[in-house]
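the two lines:
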Amino acid sequence: MDSLKQKYALSRKYAGFINISPIQTGAILPEEAERATKEFIVGYAPYNLAQGIEIMDIPVVRDFIENDLPGFLNADRVRITFGAREGIYIAMKTAAKPGSTVLVDENSHYTTFVAAEKAGLNVEIVKSSGYPEYAISTQDYEEAIRKHKPSAVLLTYPDGNYGNLPDPEPLAKLAHENSIPFILNCAYSMGRMPLDMKKLKPDFMVGSGHKSMASIGPIGIIAATEKWSEKMLKKSLHHKKSELEFMGSEIRGTPLISLMASFPYVYERVKKWPSEVEKARWFSRKMDMLGLVQLGEKPHNHDLMKFRTDPFYEISKLHHKKRAFLYEHLKSRGITGIQHGKTKAIKLSTYGISKDSLKKVLSAFEDIVDTY
Amino acid sequence: MDSLKQKYALSRKYAGFINISPIQTGAILPEEAERATKEFIVGYAPYNLAQGIEIMDIPVVRDFIENDLPGFLNADRVRITFGAREGIYIAMKTAAKPGSTVLVDENSHYTTFVAAEKAGLNVEIVKSSGYPEYAISTQDYEEAIRKHKPSAVLLTYPDGNYGNLPDPEPLAKLAHENSIPFILNCAYSMGRMPLDMKKLKPDFMVGSGHKSMASIGPIGIIAATEKWSEKMLKKSLHHKKSELEFMGSEIRGTPLISLMASFPYVYERVKKWPSEVEKARWFSRKMDMLGLVQLGEKPHNHDLMKFRTDPFYEISKLHHKKRAFLYEHLKSRGITGIQHGKTKAIKLSTYGISKDSLKKVLSAFEDIVDTY
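prediction for all of em together
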């Protein structure tokens, strides 16, 4: 028993570190949301807002889902999911019949492929331009649509590898002309940058609370146009109040508290997006001067970036810590967030990190390049 | 903006109250788990245990899921879900083909019906004995199996209305003799009382972290026998590491931290189950003396109870607060957890509540009965 107690006395290993992890920079809670979330460390959390009534009958929860979130995204209908992957799955299941084909960009997250498989769909790919930009041209969807006759198309906006931000508008036009439902994966954009569903015109837009909306997970968002909402929100025959695909909504728990408590902060921070892009570009230029070459679109349009790091790879061949040296070196400087054991290329994000902290990151990289 | 800030400055309304809510008494976190969970108020929480590696490669997470949880339940294989309803859905989807029939007890939670519908199954019901015991006899499954030829059977152990605890063992025997997979819904037992899967012999056992395992939600558990695990844990063709139905496991987030941090406490507390049953029976007897009559099995075998409260109903007809009077009266005594507006019958749980606190609850009820 004491050994169990010891084993599960969990602690964060990197609290207080500068965190450049692409999957975490958008998820740091503001102080007020941290406070609220800590209060709701209890099972069935939202019930504690208004004990004894159904979750969707709690005024603030209903208002969040029916008014404030749709307003924020300029969307017709919004529902809470367990994350972007569940959102993609629900969108695909709603939009396409099992056995049909979904057309996705080559930069899609692996969960896009898994969600399609779970929904019984075949996947066809629109290739990127390859090294070094890996750009997705929405024009390339045109030929692929002719060839594969997909029942849905998906675009990753941006992708999680290069942070490339292809223009969804031409694809939306193309999809609508061909009457094909269009899914936009916004796991790394919803909550970071302004999104206007009526302007971008996808049929579904999917987001992630624990990636980009300053929330603990698991939580995400799916937005749909009115046209699709009836099918997506089909009610259970057995239990008229339950939307079948969501199996009742009250299980969203403490992450829902966190998502709601962070909402006013997220609502404001997306307005500062241009300065985040500016900062990312500045960081990319500084890295370039160290011989660490940014891949993906240049100039870059997002805080998520991948760098080719040839000097680090060369060092790892000689270093006594081998491929672990880079991670360990950053750790010794109070920096975390790159993948352990990677030296040929690294992914990072500058989102929400001050220039002073980013200078420390640059200086940690510079010291390695200089020393070896 | 300020109005948004105000709206989403969420606070618990009933912190510090004696909480007799059946869906919450089993979810109170012990101090050590509250501390750990508060540390992980951050997106993609488990990554902070070991940044840069896959969630299932974190030794403590892997050990929890592959060794400690199976050991605790004497189960072959265990996976984490978003709650009991997802567990029931996965069990049904694994065990039965769409279009076939699942046989369930009449006391089943509404999500059992919704999960069956989502899995494309027809539902047939084994009736309870009705008022006042609403007992489920597993012998009644025998005729129903002959009649409906179900492809799966489910038993709720116990149900969330009466806290009735039917004996699963005869049903397990019957199901195995007929080669029908048997699902045991343990949302209100797993984490409250000892469960031994090899003794009870279901094919699937489903639990809820935020109902009975001292955890924040949304989180649950599905346990399966080796026989079913291959089908249940089928890997994605697109992404060999991902189990298709679970779409990758890293999104279980902060609730997973909470579930793990509470595990040593839960592991110990189930051993005290006999004294919890004793306390529930004592409470039931005291209620009886007030003319508040316990429904369901008597003597009772679980902390979750429903009482017929005729005196309260009579009072509500005359009281100026009408049906809200009971809830409000309890609230004024620092007691919460019954459903707002119910006076004919109330559901409550005595789990983990001290006798002193329960005496306060009894005295609050007594005062009403005496005054009117």
